[in-house]
Amino acid sequence: MGVSPLRGNDKTEYLPCGEEEHRVTSPSKGEARRGRGFYDGWYYSGLIMKLYFTLNGKKTTLDVAPDRRVIDVLREDCGLTGTKEGCGAGECGACTILVDGESRLSCLMLAAQLAGRQITTIEGMAGKDRPHPLQDAFIQHGAVQCGFCTPGMILSASALLSRNPRPTRADIRAGLSGNLCRCTGYQKIVDAVEAAVRREEESA
Amino acid sequence: MTQVHLPQTMADLWSCLDGDPGALIYAGGTDLLVKMRTGKTAASPALICIDRLGELRDVRETAAGIWIGAAATHTELLRHPVISTHLPVLTQALHTLGSPLIRNMGTIGGNICTASPAGDTLPPLYILQAEVELRCRDNARILPIREFITGPGETQLQQGEVLTAIRVKKPAGYNVHHFEKVGQRKSMACAVASMAALLRLSPAGMIEAARLAWGSSGPTIVTDATLEDTLIGKKLSQETLTCAAQRIRQIVTPIDDVRASADYRRTVSGNLLLRLLDAQLQNYAKLPKEL
Amino acid sequence: MNPYIPEIGKPVPRADGAAKAAGAEKYAVDHYGENLLWAGVRRAGVAHGRIRCVDTAAALQISGVIAVLTGRDVPGTNRQGIVHKDQPVLADEKVRHRGDAVALVVAEDRATLKKALSLIRVEIDPLPGVFTVDDALRPDAPLVHDEHPQGNILLKATIQAGGAQAALEGCDIFIEETFHVPAISHAFIETENGVAWQEEDGKIVLVVSTQAPFRDKWEISHALGLPMDRLRIIGPYLGGAFGGKDGATVQCLLVLAALHTGGRRVKMWWDREESFVAGYKRHAVRLQYRLGARSDGTLQALHCRLYYDTGAYAHLGGEVMALGMEHAGGPYRIPDTLIEGWCIYTNNPIAGAMRGFGVAQVSFAFEGMMDLLAGKLGIDPLELRLKNALRRGDRNTAGVTMTQSTGVLDCLAAVQNHPRWQERKAWKKAAGPFRRRGVGIAAVFNAMGYGRGLPDSALAKVELTKEGRIRIYSGVSDMGQGNATAFVQIAGQILCQEHTAIELVQPDTERTLPSGSAAASRTTYTYGNALIRACEELRRRLTGRTALILLSDTLDDLELLPGRVKNLMSGREIPLTALAAMMTPEDRVCISQFIMPVVRDKLDTGKEFVIGFPHLLFSYAAHLVCIEVDELTGAINVEAYLAATEAGRVLNPQAFEQQVHGAIAQGIGYALSEEVLMQEGRIVNPDFATYIIPGALDIPEMVSLAVETYEPTGPYGMKGVGEVGMNGPLPAIAGALADACGVHMTRSPLTAERVLAALSTPPPP
User: Fold this and answer.
1) Is the pLDDT of residue C290 over 60?
2) Nearest CB to A108: which of B38, B105, B187?
């Protein structure tokens, strides 16, 4: 990413979240200094939490207010805008991420809950040089229209397939029943997931 | 800004509560965080997230009963063989709750403490005669769930207390296990009416035992022992159930709200009994005949 | 994926698909920036009243608050609007709906913003409000707009052909019915938002989720008194819009904010609740229909009275009503029609453009009347429609001669021949306990384009870049309908380049050219036609310049091939990179304009419509739905859906199907569960927990049949297909319900509660 890893006092190497250097704040110093980047808010004093977690396969550390919503951490602090917000209340699923492989709503998670977890966002789905089979299937089968629900759909589909590798169409619909789409009518999304399943079976 | 504690052990949890007695506890946050966002729940200086407390996510089986950790997520329960084998009426309800995402985060303890009259796990837990285990640092007590929930959003949970487990006896001798939820769509729907039922039918179709509970039909889950008694000895028929439906319509006290009117809820609460004629055909044949 | 040449007629995958599936595509909402500020609005909270004071002192005290602005601080006219400029950016003397913007705060972060907004003291002396059309029309009704000459009537209009009143009396059969449809919300997943900043030279740049970046400039300029050349609007791909981002939402507020931030970027993002409260809605309408026919089912006369509740401000109310009135008789021949419409101001939330613009509403009514007529006459409902359906050469109910492609009969025939229709009796018999099955149909249509009174124009710009690639400068927003991909196909088809060599620039008022709004199912048709001309000109130009380099004495031997121009006779060729290097920048750019053709009939009706009437081109569809009604709960389950759609030729079968599927799904929501519930102008269900849009388990498997005709005026023979599908589900499902249970519901949505009540009501003797 072009930014050299920061070294903490305890000599642990950690990578900043996103491309901008994280601002470093210390609870004992009181008023936080504003760092570079998207960071929102400068009212932190005292209660900053230092979090260690894995983000899209990379060990990450973050100084953040513990009650900051994970969706804001991802979009603003880490610059990963692939995770979308549609309602902020857990109803639409646009904010879906994977936490230790399980799909969750990042608008209803607080930063503290990231500690020690493996987090996967849409940006972490692709392989080294190629898209994830689900991403490929979505593109080929017309499952992307406005595309705003797409990251959440792909992550929910991924979680579904990791548990149920041979879902029926009804299983797929049930598996995606927490992700609202206003454009597609869902059918081509189901087609795409089915196609990804077929491709897995054929290559196995 | 709000402090968020992440206790790893029960000892941690008691320390957190000692330090922040007014702290609000959550596991999945699917109710609490939504309410805090709109101000329905006042902001608190501290939150305690209990999703790291492994011992509160266990499910343990004994000969006669099942112990369910309060922080077990709905998904964990759906996947647990003990639950699906012995508590099909709860399993059916869990399938209708929210969405896979909500089920991955939400917990049975949360559903109980939120104590919404529309809580999907509640009608099954009432007919399973569930008890809740409430602990504080130095004490533990057990309450039947119908005593624990006292009104919409109201429970007997005291300051410093945590709901740690749900205990149910395995329902023995029932051969119809049925749950139905009526919502405005097929997922992510708050129940506008629901019904859980356990029946024992003789081979000739006579009702030998019955337990019934209705959701979204009053300030708390509605059950009626008299109704259950009047069913015993009768044949499971349209006539029997229509009569029972009329009675239940007199007993429930639903409200008008943005999702449905009280009249609709009252009518449907009765109608849902008739579905047992349908369920009988499906379930009676399928389940092992344990008598 | 290997490079391919995107061509017309092929199911080319979306050009934007890969970036969106990777989460890499930046919507407006994904734009942040260094030292970002946040802007937010304090809203009236009172449906109607006079502002006594807006006290901002406490808000200004908070550290981190940059500016607090009220109506007094708005330069220019402080009036936004698309046709009628009647909506204040920040309310000055009055508030007219609860979502009216009263103050604008700019702050360092969202928490500070929220705090400051709560500290603004707004004192409003309430005025009595009007919340129904009838209340608003009373002679003594309080006026929403005091200065408006026609009281609370934004527009009263008439479309008349023949002599309906007399004709109705002479009919064998006469049916009268009143229908009601509620306000609904677009519920796009990306809510209204944007980012704005002022550059050093004073220009304001706005990145915004918008269907009309060029028109936004006009709207902002008029509202804030800024010269047009001081505004640059960038319109990225939208996360859905469906009409709700047609017309300023955040635009004027954000530009106003940007004038006060000393060059810092400022972002505004409406959360879901604010989107419900302040965003636009589909018009609620009361539809009073009187229909007369011969006993053999031939339609004779129609008299309608339509009342559209446009809410507090005009938005596109008059135009929505105009289009509804134009479609009020359905895709049928009716010799005598009298369509009367009233578009009424109330203190309800603002109604504006939404997919199926005025037409989704009347479709419920005209198809409901057809079902009632079929029932009364004992005629098969599909036969009745076949009998009366428009053909090319007929006059429609607005009095316009159908000179262009008119495929409704073909659509109906496709449905008639389908097993779902043929085998419906057997299917219905197989309903389970406490379930009743029904099959319903609907014939629907939707005009394309702006109609008369406004040029439906696009300016296409295409360039051979220095790198030898083809760059299309799209002037119309892609809100998910997929026009960008169609443009790539057109360029690929004409210029014979691989998809990897074709680039798109999304609308940017500084780089692309004005091409009208992304609305009215028009973008692929109008911009596509312009693009065809521009690409053909570019092809001529590239072969022409090649001739100079290769010394070819005729252009006939020269052919544009992937990456090069080749002289097929001599075999010599020149790479496009080399060709580009030898051309001047302006020579590498081709610009062409297209204006949609208009109706030639000289009509002596609809005179009240300044713009938007009448239309020349329509797309058509016939829908069939199979439903199961649960007698215990009243719930309707949609088991299967069939749509036969005619929109000229299909440029991209995958994109065509995407539009049909999506429209059906939105239509099912409109039919079964969506309603903006209001009490005295307050939205009671302003969130996704209580405003119910369908999920994956609520939409059935859909079959989409493309019924192709040839539209000679369309790019490769196509017409727009974005809206027509929206109009079918509600009437089809209502028809299916009548078929299943004998109840004719005239009020939507057809919720379980309403259905159960109807089932329990004994039918009239």
Assistant:
1) yes
2) B105
pTM, 2 dp: 0.95
Work out the average pLDDT over B44-67. 94
Specify the pLDDT at position A25.
36
Residues in B closer than 8 angstroms to C694, CB to CB, are: 185
Mean pLDDT of chain C: 97
Give per-residue pLDDT as tens, A68-90.
999 999 999 999 999 999 999 99
B3 contact residues in A (CB cutoff 8 A): 47, 66-67
Q: What is the model's pLDDT at position B280? A: 62
Interchain proximity C690–B259, CB inside 8 Å: yes
ipTM above 0.90, yes or no: yes
Q: Where are the beta strands (DSSP E) in C482-588?
A: 502-505, 558-561, 564-567, 573-575
The strand ranges marked E within A36-187 are: 49-55, 58-64, 96-99, 102-105, 118-120
Q: C82 vs C213, C217, C518, CA distance in Å?
A: 12, 11, 14
C266 in contact with chain A, both atoms CB, cutoff 8 A: no
| Phi, psi (rounded to 5 degrees) for C559 | -135, 135
Closest residue in chain A to residue C478, using alpha carbons only: A146
Closest residue to C692, CB basis, from B185, B267, B277: B185
C488 has pLDDT over 60: yes
Q: How many angstroms separate the CA atoms of B186 and A136, rounded?
A: 29
Residue listed under structure tokens 């009280």: B262
* Beta bridge mates, C153: C344
Q: What local confidence, expressed as pLDDT, does residue A39 receive?
A: 28
CB C66 within 8 A of CB C107: yes
- Are A112 and B4 in contact (CB < 8 Å)? yes
Q: Is residue B135 within 8 Å of B158, Cβ to Cβ?
A: no
Mutual orientation of helices A133-140 and A150-163 as an angle, nearest 10°? 130
Instruction: Quickly list H helices, C673-722.
Output: none
DSSP B112-135: HHHT-TT-TTHHHHHHTT-EEEEE
Closest CA of chain A from B52, distance in Å: 9
Which residue does chain B place closest to A109, by CA atoms? B29
Closest C-alpha among C689, C698, B80 to residue A108: C689
Q: Residue A129 CB: number of other CB atoms within 10 A?
A: 5
Tell whether A148 is within 8 A of chain C (Cβ): yes
